[in-house]
């Protein structure tokens, strides 16, 4: 009985997995591993733009804090889901959009909204700080966890409130005489969030003409 | 039944029954000069290493369940334990996944597969001390990895979150265990291979390959761009399909015929089921990226392969469920059978749900929702974990030579987890579907979708508490059993194993 013949079994077991290892691991590595930036012939704009050092640091915090478990960074194509209609992007995302990411965090859960283009949608750093400090301030009813540990509550110095102190009112205000300021981590994380923009015109994913400005 | 009878009838039967059936007093049959060991001798050789794997696995199950409850509560009450960074939702959720997958499920799998392999090969485990050392190493790796995750060192690569300084320890232990399983297989005294052995062998060959590839291409020398996502899901999906699933199926194939004393429904279906799984499952991974930024051909291949999974799923379903036909009554006496059959039925359901979720039109709705979480628990818990519980109910009394101390705790365990997981998976699947429908309707505000999920998320916490009750009952019973190991053997008071074809060799 062939199924009692060990070597044949071994061979079959190894060959089956080898097939998808070549097909789904090596082939994409060859096909996509060397994608480069695209330069627009009309505007000389380069997509996707490389990330500044500050934002690159922020990406590490995004990874370490596990934002990916509630947020995706991928926009699905027109007619598939309502990603474009929700304003999460002006075009779908494609392989080239991710070439600068040290860790690609596409995500699989949308407990929170997609963040591919959050830098375009919400460029106000102060909003991000208040939201991160406690999402209930900007988005009552949110289930995003508060990240107060990314901020420092300290006594207001003799020269008065710091310029970067958060504007917090009512129940969210810190005790009298103190102020809440972002730590380096918060600053880098927000720099990263504000850098998230994937809507440059690409040959493989053009932005629809009437919307592209 | 004589193992050397050459009549065609018994040839077929041999292929359909585990090799150790009817060999209760064995040890006298010679094949190719290798002496087949007595079952009691095999069980004794497995005692220490298998107990190590089971007990540390159960320790991680308790830890993982508590982490799960915290994660679940945080999802509807985000302020809960909010001040501690290391207990942040993402940390706790990730620690939950890694403790239950690598700490609990994988370790219990290794224990079960070592024991099954020895039983089916009819030899005592060679050098059990070596396997025990691998176990200690392995637990060191999991501990370092989970602490790393809680410290914020997670890689954020799903199913591979343990930091780079922990994974090599795990890889070496896995490799050691795999090599040892293959050595055991090579030394086998029983030349005939039973279907469970095919699956076990496949699992131990596949897993190190998967884990090794993922480690090199994602942690050590990360590939660029979305190739990471491809490798990630090739790995993560195959951990389920080519590591846990084969061990789960091997156990079902072993325990159903063993407990009811009846051969597997069809040999040819088991061959077809095995090879079609081997062919199709490993191409499935990209169905986690439908609509994503990968080339269409990759996604399409995986969707097609997912649909092809109907072949192994249906053949295995026929084979398992038809074997059981007319014997469901035995589930009352045998806790093993009760858990195993629950798991076998869940395997069919989880697979069908998986095939459906891979279709473009369904994935459009369910992909980014709690439907996926429900599916994960239907597969990993209702199928795999239940099968492992069933296997442990059979194996533990044999390696300890003691009966289960408490029938009541067994019932509490079964009903706690059975009700708990149904209450988890059914509402969550439905909720995910509705959540996805709402997300796809741009006129509904995002925060309203969030609000919609809240009551369902609270229900999940309740379901999780039921699961915890079951886990504590089981661990209590196991602890009690261990205490009994140190008492002189007494004739068992409760005889819950009487329904199982191979009863304990009492007094031997
Ligand atoms: C004790 C009761 C349990 C509860 C309350 C529970 C709860 C949870 C929660 C809240 C998540 C995260 C969901 C999200 O990110 O939205 C999760 C993820 C997960 N859990 Fe559990 N869990 C339990 C037991 C288990 C067990 C025993 C296993 C496996 C043996 C398991 C396997 C998983 C897996 C694989 C995931 C990741 C799912 C994915 O990313 O698709 N869970 N669980």
Q: What fraction of residues of chain B sit in β-strands?
A: under 5%
Estimated helix fraction of chain A: 25-40%
Structural class of chain A: mainly alpha
Separation of the first and last Cα atoms of chain A: 70 Å
- Report the uncertain regions of chain B: 1-9, 22-33, 493-508
Annotated CATH homologous superfamily of one domain in chain A: Cytochrome c-like domain
Question: What amount of the residues of chain A lies in strands?
Answer: 5-15%
Strand order of the largest sheet of chain A: 1-2
Question: What is the mean pLDDT of chain B?
Answer: 89
- The helix tally of chain B amounts to 15
Present as ligands are: protoporphyrin IX containing FE
What's the β-strand tally of chain B?
2
Spell out the key features of this protein.
heterodimer, A: 213 residues, mainly alpha, two-stranded antiparallel ribbon, two-stranded antiparallel sheet, 6 helices, 7% strand, B: Four Helix Bundle (Hemerythrin (Met), subunit A), 71% helix, 1% strand, binds protoporphyrin IX containing FE
